[in-house]
């Protein structure tokens, strides 16, 4: 895995993305070359603009493919992967984006003949690149061989996660090294034994291991810290369980988390530059969303009024930055008497209190659009943890460890937890979402904000997540 702006990115996805960017740029130049071989073709585009045009084309297609989920790979499906069915919709979305780009900057326009050739060559190139990629993945080139130090519950959980991690890369588990003080929770035939005179380094070399995952709950007494250091000095990667979970799930697991790992583990960037860049990102995204969605917002307000009367908007107290309350603005999606008893209730997936128009706008995320005004006021960010109601926050702080950490940054209209997890209607769901929120709070960056923005578009298109 690569780490870009504190966010873990699969090397395989990075390589695939790099190759496909080259394919798209090459397709732009190949299309222009083929078209201009025709003596009756129009004059060549200005060369000083053509590279910018090619970059705009590649960026539009990569953005569209990302929004369609084409970079969420699953090796178990291989060439049966449905992403090939998303190739043409991705190119259609890219065409719409390019049309807007060419309208804003007409000097970048390819011309119809060149553009058609570019799209045909690019689609063929992407299709061929994916076939080669998935065929290559069957040859075990992408496997990492690992050993788990430990044989208890934590080691069992880590190994189960490694066996399920077939989306971005594969793991070949060489075995487990049991710690005498731990309860054995893994099969006995998977245990690796150190012979007299052998070291952990020699064992790693014997099994051609590239990584050791330290999955021991209690590290007191008999913990081979010196041997782990020797392994690291010999080029074998040493990873603790918390980092392994963070890397593989893009969560921070709170049940096996040591507070010292949060304190000394890095991340939690709250520098002036980060705050300045995030505020700029918030204002730009919110302005674009407001301009593009204004007709939709006006129509939504009218439909809500016709179905259930006034008020159209709904103000609700939420907990924001530094645990300070504020009022979030949303389109009203429930009946006026939704909480007539006066006691707050968790919102359920098929909540009977939701109106007909409310059901649609919740599924399409239209009910969240008025929150752009909260962003303009500085109460929210475009990307951040979902703000919760004070009534539920008081309950969750009591039962969910580290819940208050999510209030160290501004809440968001969309967020890492919303695009990664489904509807939350219980304390258990809140725990799962918190683990994603902690990951975002720890690793938040402009790069991660852009990824959340792309995933949000995918969620809206496929009506998944929350």
Automatic annotation (TrEMBL):
A GO term for molecular function: undecaprenyl-phosphate glucose phosphotransferase activity
GO cellular component, one term: membrane
Keywords: Membrane, Transferase, Transmembrane, Transmembrane helix
One BP term from GO: colanic acid biosynthetic process
InterPro entries assigned: Bact_transf, EPS_sugar_tfrase, Sugar_tfrase_EpsB_2
Domain (Bacterial sugar transferase): residue spans on this chain: 278-461
Topological relation to the membrane, as annotated: Multi-pass membrane protein
Transmembrane domains' residue ranges: 12-30, 50-71, 83-104, 110-133, 283-306
Compartments it resides in: Membrane
Annotated family: Belongs to the bacterial sugar transferase family.
Protein name: Sugar transferase
Organism of derivation: Massilia psychrophila
Lineage: Bacteria, Pseudomonadati, Pseudomonadota, Betaproteobacteria, Burkholderiales
């Amino acid at each position: 895995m690569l780490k870009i702006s504190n966010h873990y990115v699969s090397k395989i996805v990075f390589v695939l993305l790099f190759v496909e960017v080259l394919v798209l740029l090459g397709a732009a130049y190949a299309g222009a070359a083929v078209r201009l071989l025709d003596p009756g073709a129009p004059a060549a585009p200005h060369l000083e603009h053509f590279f910018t045009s090619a970059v705009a084309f590649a960026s539009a297609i990569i953005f569209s493919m990302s929004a369609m989920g084409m970079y969420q790979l699953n090796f178990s499906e291989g060439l049966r992967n449905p992403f090939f069915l998303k190739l043409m919709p991705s190119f259609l979305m890219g065409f719409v984006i390019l049309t807007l780009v060419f309208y804003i900057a007409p000097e970048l326009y390819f011309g119809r003949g060149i553009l058609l050739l570019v799209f045909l060559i690019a689609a063929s190139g992407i299709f061929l690149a994916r076939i080669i990629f998935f065929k290559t993945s069957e040859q075990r080139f992408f496997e990492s061989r690992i050993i788990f130090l430990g044989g208890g519950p934590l080691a069992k959980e880590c190994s189960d996660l490694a066996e399920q991690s077939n989306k971005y890369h594969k793991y070949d588990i060489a075995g487990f090294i049991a710690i005498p003080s731990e309860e054995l929770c893994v099969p006995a035939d998977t245990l690796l034994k150190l012979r007299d005179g052998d070291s952990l380094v020699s064992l790693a070399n014997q099994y051609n291991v590239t990584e050791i995952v330290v999955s021991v709950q209690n590290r007191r007494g008999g913990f081979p810290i010196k041997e782990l250091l020797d392994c690291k000095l010999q080029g074998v990667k040493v990873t603790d369980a918390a980092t392994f979970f963070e890397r593989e799930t893009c969560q921070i697991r709170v049940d096996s988390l040591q507070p010292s790992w949060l304190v000394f583990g890095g991340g939690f960037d709250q520098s002036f530059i980060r705050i300045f860049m995030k505020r700029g990102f918030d204002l730009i995204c919110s302005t674009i969303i407001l301009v593009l969605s204004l007709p939709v917002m006006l129509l939504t307000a009218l439909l809500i009024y016709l179905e259930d009367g006034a008020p159209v908007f709904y103000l609700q107290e939420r907990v924001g930055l530094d645990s300070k309350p504020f009022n979030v603005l949303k389109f009203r999606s429930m009946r006026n008497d939704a909480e007539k008893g006066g006691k707050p209730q968790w919102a359920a997936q098929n909540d009977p209190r939701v109106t007909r128009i409310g059901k649609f706008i919740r599924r399409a995320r239209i009910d969240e659009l008025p929150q752009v005004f909260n962003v303009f006021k500085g109460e929210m960010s475009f990307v951040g943890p979902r703000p919760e109601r004070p009534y539920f926050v008081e309950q969750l702080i009591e039962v969910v460890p580290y819940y208050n950490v999510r209030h160290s940054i501004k809440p968001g209209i969309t967020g890492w937890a919303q695009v990664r997890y489904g509807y939350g209607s219980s304390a258990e769901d809140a725990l799962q979402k918190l683990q994603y929120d902690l990951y975002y709070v720890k690793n938040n960056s402009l790069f991660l904000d852009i990824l959340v923005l792309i995933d949000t578009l995918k969620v809206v298109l496929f009506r998944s997540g929350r």
